């Protein structure tokens, strides 16, 4: 029943977004929304009861208004609301799934092609997802959780940008490598730690060098070292080996 309900909510979002974008074309609507702070309290909207009631109807329908870094608005399923309303009636499988989705809703791990949370926090989310996959190997939401887990892992081990690399040497910064070692020490028995340990071994082989130097006037950072690139490419397969294929 819940799976069908979630599908209904997800299927309803595009129509809500279309109607919402039509509303945004009306004079003053965008300005009124910009005046609010996240999480948005639509009861604070003044002198536009139609807009207020429309927005409140969407939140009552368990959708949440979100905004990108450039303040482009969009709606998504409010998993925190679903958790509050239905968790007590759900199986452990679905309860654990809602915990993961609610965590991601509070603050997404990635945005603007960079991490939005610390690697330590991302490590905790990976373990939460791993716990789901090991506790519910045939769970109703295994595919979704395994996809998210794989995305977490890729971000954790490869989403470096410039803040994690010493551009004078193309080496991974010691603080990032230390975060990997600390993770393994914290949960040495986890499947995720097994993957991270393999990666630490590659770092040792490379003396922590991740990338070749880039071409002058083209890019500061060049291609990843061959063994690093091969590891990154094979992450999805490693996850499948650890947890089985997601169907």
What report would you give on this structure?
This protein has a two-stranded antiparallel sheet. A two-stranded antiparallel sheet has the order 3-4. A two-stranded antiparallel ribbon has the order 5-6. Helix content is 58%, strand content 10%. A hairpin with a 4-residue loop joins β5 and β6. It contains eleven helices and eight strands. α4 (79-86) packs antiparallel against α5 (92-106) and α5 runs antiparallel to α6 (119-135).
Strand order of the largest sheet: 1-2
Which structural class best describes the helix and strand composition? mainly alpha
Main beta sheet, described?
2 strands, antiparallel
Secondary-structure element sequence?
A: HHHEEHHEEHHEEHHEEHH
Shape: globular
Q: Approximately how much helix is present in the residues? A: 55-70%
Mean pLDDT: 93
Strand content: 5-15%
């Amino acid at each position: 029943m819940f799976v069908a309900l979630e599908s209904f909510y997800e299927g309803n979002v595009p129509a809500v977004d279309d109607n919402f974008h039509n509303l945004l074309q009306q004079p003053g609507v965008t300005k009124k929304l910009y005046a609010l702070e996240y999480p948005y309290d639509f009861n604070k909207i003044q002198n536009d009861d139609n807009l207020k009631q429309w927005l409140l109807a969407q939140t009552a329908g368990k959708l949440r208004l979100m905004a990108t870094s450039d303040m482009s608005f969009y709606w998504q399923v409010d998993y925190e609301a679903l958790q509050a309303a239905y968790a007590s009636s759900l199986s452990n499988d679905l309860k654990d799934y809602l915990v993961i989705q609610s965590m991601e809703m509070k603050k997404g791990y990635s945005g603007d092609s960079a991490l939005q949370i610390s690697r330590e926090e991302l490590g905790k989310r990976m373990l939460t997802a791993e716990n789901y996959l090991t506790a519910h190997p045939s769970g109703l939401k295994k595919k979704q959780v395994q996809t998210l887990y794989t995305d977490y892992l890729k971000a954790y081990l490869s989403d470096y940008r410039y803040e994690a690399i010493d551009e004078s040497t193309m080496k991974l910064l010691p603080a990032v490598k230390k975060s990997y070692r600390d993770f393994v020490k914290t949960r040495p028995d986890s499947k995720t730690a097994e993957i991270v340990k393999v990666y630490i071994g590659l770092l040792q082989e490379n003396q922590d060098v991740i990338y070749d130097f880039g071409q002058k006037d083209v890019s500061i950072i060049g291609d990843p070292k061959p063994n690093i690139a091969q590891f990154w490419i094979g992450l999805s397969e490693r996850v499948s080996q650890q947890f089985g294929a997601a169907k």
